[in-house]
Specification:
10 strands, 2 domains, binds zinc ion, alpha/beta, globular, Nucleotidyltransferase, domain 5, single chain, binds 5'-O-[(R)-(carboxyoxy)(hydroxy)phosphoryl]adenosine
C-alpha cells in the first residue's frame, strides 16, 4: 500500500467509454470516447453500446495512460464501474479491469456508478486541501437514469432521502426532446434553445408527490398532450414555438427539482449543497442553484461540466477512497445492472 497510489479507472456503464488516471486524488488524465451511433435511434441501443465499448476500450486506456505520462508498470490499482448500468456495457469494462489486475498483480476496485456521480465535484487536477471538512452535503443527483436527493456524510457514507418514482429528470428532457425532433440525447439541445425562449409561455401539469420523492411521467404526458392538441390546428406548432417549448419544459423540470431540494434543506438544516449527474450540466439548473445558495448563504458545490456526464475520473475518485480503506474486489466480482447508492 502506498499513500498516493496511481489508479487507472474505467467507466463503461452506458454509452461512454472512459479511462482516467489519478495520483492520489489528483486527476492526471480523463479520456472519453462517446458513441454517436445511438443518436439515429433516439436512445442507447445496448447491443451497439457493448460492441462500441469493445472497440474503444484499449485505445481509450492507451490515451489516458499517455496523457498522464504513466507506464502501466506504475499503476497501483485498477478500478471499474460495477453497476448500475447496461450489463453488456459493464461487462466490457469489468473484463478489461480484471484482466489488467491479474496481469499486473494489483488490486481490483469495483465502484458504484452513482457513488462516482456523488463525488464528481471533488474531481480536480490540482492538489486539494481541507478535503475532509466539508460534510454533510446534500446532493441532488440528476442523470439520465436517476434522480435522487442524497445526504453525503463522508466520502464513503451516504443516504438516499428522496428518489424518482418513475422517470429520471434526464429522461424527461430526452423523451420530450425526442418528440420535438431534437435528437438524442436531447437535454443539452433543450438547454441551449431554452436560453432563447420564454419560460412562462406554456404550463405543464406537475403531480404532487410525498416527501422528497419526484415524479416526471405526468410532466411528460402533459407535454405530449399539449403538442398533440396544438398540432391539430397548427402543423407548424413545434417549429414555431421550439424555443418557448424548451424554456417552459426546462423550467417545469427545474421547479420540481428545486421544490424538493429546498424542502430537504429546510428540514435537515444542512448548509452545503451539491449537484451531480448529466443534468447538472444544465445552465438553468446551475443558475437557480447559484441563486438559492446566495439567498440562503449555503455553500454550493458545482462540478465542472466535463465531470457531470459519465466519466472515469469520478470513478477513480471513489476508487481512491476504497484503496485507502483497502476495500478491494476479488477477480470473480460480477457487474450488476441494478444497484443503488450505498451498495458497494
Ligand atoms: O450522467 P449521465 O451522463 O448518464 C447517466 O448516468 O444517466 O446523464 C445523461 C443525461 C441525459 O439524459 C442528458 O440529456 C442529460 O444528462 N444532460 C442534460 C444536459 N447535459 C446532459 N440535461 C439537461 N441539460 C443539459 N445541459
Ligand atoms: Zn451516469
Amino acid at each position: 500500500m502506498v499513500n498516493k497510489p496511481y489508479i487507472l479507472a474505467i467507466e463503461s456503464s452506458c454509452d461512454d467509454t472512459s479511462a482516467a488516471v489519478l495520483h492520489g486524488t489528483r486527476l492526471l488524465s480523463n479520456a472519453i470516447a462517446s458513441q454517436a451511433i445511438h443518436s439515429q435511434y433516439g436512445g442507447v441501443v445496448p447491443e451497439l453500446a457493448s460492441r462500441a465499448h469493445q472497440q474503444n476500450i484499449v485505445p481509450v486506456v492507451d490515451v489516458a495512460l499517455k496523457k498522464a505520462g504513466i507506464d502501466v508498470s506504475q499503476i497501483h490499482a485498477v478500478a471499474f464501474t460495477k453497476g448500475p448500468g447496461l450489463l453488456g456495457s459493464l461487462l466490457v469494462g469489468s473484463s478489461f479491469a480484471k484482466s489488467f489486475a491479474q496481469a499486473r498483480n494489483i488490486p481490483l476496485i469495483g465502484v458504484n456508478h452513482l457513488h462516482g456521480h456523488l463525488l464528481a465535484h471533488w474531481v480536480s487536477d490540482k492538489e486539494t486541501e481541507n478535503f475532509e471538512n466539508q460534510f454533510p452535503v446534500l446532493c441532488l443527483l440528476v442523470s439520465g437514469g436517476h434522480t435522487m436527493i442524497v445526504v453525503i456524510r463522508n466520502f464513503l457514507e451516504y443516504e438516499i432521502i428522496g428518489y424518482t418514482i418513475d422517470d429520471a429528470a434526464g429522461e424527461a428532457f430526452d423523451k420530450c426532446a425526442k418528440v420535438m425532433g431534437l435528437g438524442y440525447p436531447g437535454g443539452p439541445v433543450v438547454d441551449s434553445l431554452a436560453a432563447l425562449g420564454n419560460e412562462n409561455a406554456f404550463i405543464f401539469g406537475m403531480p404532487k408527490i410525498q416527501g422528497y420523492n419526484f415524479s416526471f411521467s405526468g410532466l411528460k404526458t402533459s407535454f405530449l398532450y399539449t403538442l398533440r392538441d396544438q398540432l391539430k390546428t397548427n402543423p407548424e406548432f413545434v417549429e414555431e414555438n421550439i424555443n418557448d417549448l424548451c424554456a417552459s419544459l426546462q423550467k417545469s423540470i427545474i421547479d420540481a427539482l428545486m421544490a424538493k431540494l429546498k424542502r430537504a434543506i429546510r428540514n435537515t438544516g444542512i448548509k452545503s449543497i451539491a449537484v451531480s449527474g448529466g443534468v447538472a450540466a444544465n445552465s438553468g439548473l446551475r443558475s437557480r442553484l447559484t441563486d438559492l445558495a446566495h439567498k440562503h448563504n449555503l455553500t454550493l458545490y458545482l462540478p465542472e461540466k466535463a465531470y457531470t456526464t459519465d466519466n472515469a475520473a469520478m470513478i477513480g475518485m471513489v476508487a481512491y477512497f476504497h484503496y485507502r480503506e483497502q476495500r478491494f474486489d476479488s477477480l470473480d466480482a460480477v457487474p450488476q445492472a441494478r444497484m443503488t447508492v450505498g451498495e458497494f
